[in-house]
Design brief:
alpha/beta, disordered C terminus, 13 helices, 278 residues, five-stranded mixed beta sheet
Length: 278
């Protein structure tokens, strides 16, 4: 990215900044998230700031240790290899979440912690992420925790309030009674995100391979990569190592916490392979 894009962003932002000065590293995340469109990236930045103010129960609770019991159930992982396009691949195992122990906003905070961390990766800023939601074990207890307010907050992060490109959302093992929750979220999503939602059902191993190569996915999802329990534990360790940084982001007025490139602990392993469709 040239200095001209950053300079243009600064000039436009100065009209609305209300005294805030943002670092180049922070602004860059928003510029890449909108493909260097200055006006759109600054609109995204404003939405991010508004979302943080309006959702303090989530944005101010970025503490991996506070949800360690959930993480230790192997609920969530970021896979060690990117997909063919360079996107990060995230897995959420909804059945590992016991709704009697964890509220929906606590579960959603895990996603926000991961998003804050991977949004610092240069490759992820340009190539985005794809998420796999394994809905095996989805129950009425899960469904009862969702309401229109939470649906709106989740959809805002997916669409217009966080500096990450969502390249694909893949649902596997989804039961029929999950559809009302999806119907609650869908109206808040833009068309481009709706078109990126793929429902694979119980026979997902036959269709996930249309989007991800076997070397990327764990064996539990038809792949040849490391097992899901191991990658979940590895990402839990990554989150715990990031506790101080996440706490700084949560308590900062704008979330503009940056780290020197030489201190970046985040693995940038990228898989070199031929593109697949999807």
């Amino acid at each position: 990215m040239s200095g001209s894009e950053l300079g243009a962003a600064r000039r436009i932002w100065s009209r609305w900044a209300e005294g805030w000065i943002f670092s180049d590293q922070f602004l860059t995340k928003f510029l890449w998230a909108r493909d260097l469109d200055v006006e759109l990236s600054l609109k995204l930045l404003l939405n991010y700031q508004r979302w943080r103010r309006e959702s303090p129960e989530i944005s101010r609770c970025l503490s991996p240790s506070s949800v360690l019991g959930l993480l230790n159930t192997t609920y969530h992982a970021v896979l060690p290899q990117r997909d063919h396009s360079g996107s990060r691949v995230l897995i959420y195992r909804i059945g590992q979440w016991d709704p009697k122990d964890w509220l929906a906003f606590q579960v959603f905070s895990v996603s926000l912690m991961t998003s804050e961390i991977i949004s610092m990766e240069t490759e992820t800023q340009t190539q985005g992420l794809k998420a796999i939601f394994d809905l095996q074990g989805w129950s009425l207890g899960h469904a009862l925790q969702f309401n229109p307010s939470l649906a709106r907050k989740i959809s805002s992060v997916l669409s217009d309030s966080f500096p990450l490109k969502v390249r694909g959302i893949h649902l596997v093992n989804e039961p029929m009674f999950f559809r009302p929750v999806l119907a609650m979220i869908r109206p808040f999503l833009p068309d481009k995100i709706r078109k990126r939602i793929h429902m694979h059902g119980a026979h997902f191993q036959d269709t996930l391979s249309d989007f991800f190569s076997p070397s990327v996915l764990p064996p539990e999802y038809g792949g040849e990569g490391p097992g899901i329990e191991g990658v979940c534990q590895a990402w839990t360790n990554q989150l715990l190592q990031s506790e101080q940084l996440l706490q700084q982001i949560a308590t900062h007025p704008t979330g503009d916490i940056t780290i020197p490139p030489e201190d970046c602990w985040i693995s940038e392993t990228v898989e070199a392979e031929q593109p697949l469709e999807g």
